[in-house]
Amino acid sequence: MAAYVASGGDFNRDTDYITTRITADGRDGYPVEPGRYRLIVARACPWANRAIIVRRLLGLEDAISIGFCGPTHDADSWTFDLDPGGVDPVLKISRLKDAYLKRFPDYPKGITVPASVDVRTGEVVTNDFAQITLDFSTEWTAYHRDGAPDLYPEPLRDEIDEVSRRVYTEVNNGVYRCGFAGSQQAYERAYDRLFAALDWLSERLRNQRYLVGDTITEADVRLFTTLVRFDAVYHGHFKCNRHKLTELPVLWAYARDLFQTPGFGDTVDFVQIKQHYYIVHRDINPTGIVPKGPELSGWLTPHGRESLGGRPFGDGTPPPPPRESERVPAGHGAG
């Protein structure tokens, strides 16, 4: 069983990812090419959820296939438990680790999602989750759907990057810093940092609909995947319990606004999210019991954020409904 709690007190995430990029000019040896790459994700994982959302918003389904790992994994690898026989139907592997070892036989780090895999060779290309979504927006433009939004508009990139950095360090990673703290002092420091950032976000979003500009950007995608997991997991499991999301009026309305936007809430599988955290993190939850709650119907209630203006997709249009093979199973969402 893997250990997640930081033995030294403060949790520090290993951010040394495979930085190879898939680009239009192929400068790293992996050119943009429809059908060549498979995006491996797990609905449970917030970092992977970003990639699922961006791929769908941009309409890259025909260009980049997707494979879903199950919600739980052992200390060794994410696995394809959801597929017949436990084998990915395209890569023909049962463990994502196989794709990592195919390229790096002595790969020393954890096997993470999302990961882009070269279907031709079966080798992992990258697991750099932050760069994957930016490259979807900037390198795969020739294969975006008609009406795809600009999630990383050039005039706003500096501000998007600045906001995203703070969201990452203080919120996306901040909840883990609370949950994996190895001492009371480390936990309390992390707790104070997290809620200071949530207070800052509440003020920022009080009078503007989105984090940067008047449309949905990469920054909103990155914040959403943490907020949507907050009450189901982080409030209790990670002890981020000053307030529930539902008790933070601005952020709760903002999160509902995004959840009800096509491409966001229809990618969220609350059952798998809870199974992942409560079953995998046995050093935090030794019984492996998965909580029955919280009640989810509130995600579909009116949010009132339209009054702030803004155009969710800018000059673009909402994505069509998800494909049948990519839909969240019935009973796993908020409906």
From TrEMBL:
The record marks 234, 277 as: Lowers pKa of active site Cys. Glutathione binds at residue 78. The active site is at 45 (nucleophile), 176 (proton donor/acceptor). GO terms for cellular component: cytoplasm. One of its GO terms (molecular function) is glutathione transferase activity. InterPro entries: Glutathione-S-Trfase_C-like (IPR010987), Glutathione-S-Trfase_C_sf (IPR036282), Glutathione_S-Trfase (IPR040079), GST_Omega-like_C (IPR047047), GST_Omega/GSH (IPR016639), Thioredoxin-like_sf (IPR036249). Keywords: Transferase. This is Glutathione S-transferase. It comes from Mycolicibacterium hassiacum (strain DSM 44199 / CIP 105218 / JCM 12690 / 3849).
